[in-house]
Write a structure and sequence with these properties.
- The protein has 253 residues and is an alpha/beta fold.
- It has a single domain, classed as Rossmann fold.
- Helix content is 34%, strand content 14%.
- It contains eleven helices and eight strands.
- A six-stranded mixed beta sheet has the order 2-1-3-4-8-5, with helices on both faces.
- Helix 5 crosses helix 8.
Length: 253
């Protein structure tokens, strides 16, 4: 199951506003980048996680996403991961942030990224086999199945990108500025906003009527206090352990 460029051109208009790079996650990524000066960002979207103190070349196929890049960032090149127009080992490091589940050919794309990168390749993704305390699974078991089908298993990512690989578990903070689903674990009201859900691509893979039923049920439970009675502790929890991972390939081993 993979998203098409046209999906993002149709539904991706709110990504720039709701999918801002989170400082806690960015700090973790910066530590992995080390002293790399030239960075390739593949599937760059609106550029949320691009470091400002390094030279970044961004590649993004969707026109809607490219238009949302702030003026402080250089324009993104039009392109896809499986056909990168760069020489071997052109970059000190590369990053692919919550994008590989959209790629039509994961293995080919990651081999290309590894080919053009002489240092670390950082892939931010979700582990479909990981555990989570996130309450959304109780409301939407269908979403669990959708996400398992979309996200590649960690061992397949490592196999495709090659080199010496490791994976790092990332705790998501309560005030996470990147509003992917689990980032809203303590802010359930955000799920009632259609534009927020539209900035989370998984919703369009649900069966007809499931999203609407979820919104109705959550709204009712928030109004009655039922949600807070069962899950209210999440409103003040500093962070949550979930399936978010950084897969790091440190070179061709």
């Amino acid at each position: 199951m993979r998203d098409s460029i046209s999906d993002y051109d149709k539904y991706g208009g709110h990504y720039g506003g709701h999918r801002q790079g989170d400082p806690t996650i960015m700090k973790e990524m910066e530590s992995v980048l080390g002293d790399a000066r030239t960075i390739l960002n593949v599937g760059a979207g609106a550029g949320s996680y691009e470091p400002l103190n390094r030279y970044v070349v961004a590649v993004e196929p969707s026109a809607t996403m490219r238009r949302q890049r702030p003026s402080s960032l250089p324009p993104a090149l039009v392109g896809t991961a499986d056909q990168l127009p760069f020489d071997d080992e052109s970059f000190d490091a590369a990053m692919a942030v919550l994008t590989i589940h959209h790629w039509p050919d994961l293995s080919k794309g990651l081999r290309e990224v590894r080919r053009v990168t002489r240092g670390p390749v950082i892939i931010m993704t979700f582990d479909p086999n990981g555990t989570t305390e996130f309450w959304l699974k109780d409301y939407l078991p269908e979403m669990v199945e959708v996400e398992k089908a979309r996200y590649p298993e960690i061992h397949l990512i490592k196999q495709a990108v090659g080199g010496e690989c490791s994976d790092i578990s990332i705790d998501v903070p309560l005030n996470c500025s990147d509003k992917f689903q689990v980032a809203l674990y303590g802010r359930p009201e955000e799920f009632l906003r259609e534009e927020v859900r539209n900035s989370q691509s998984a919703w369009k893979f649900l069966p007809d009527g499931v999203e609407e039923a979820f919104v109705e049920a959550l709204e009712k439970d928030l109004e009655s206090g039922a949600w807070d009675k069962k899950y209210g502790q999440f409103r003040n929890r500093p962070s949550i352990r979930c399936q978010l991972r950084l897969v790091v390939s440190t070179g061709v081993g």
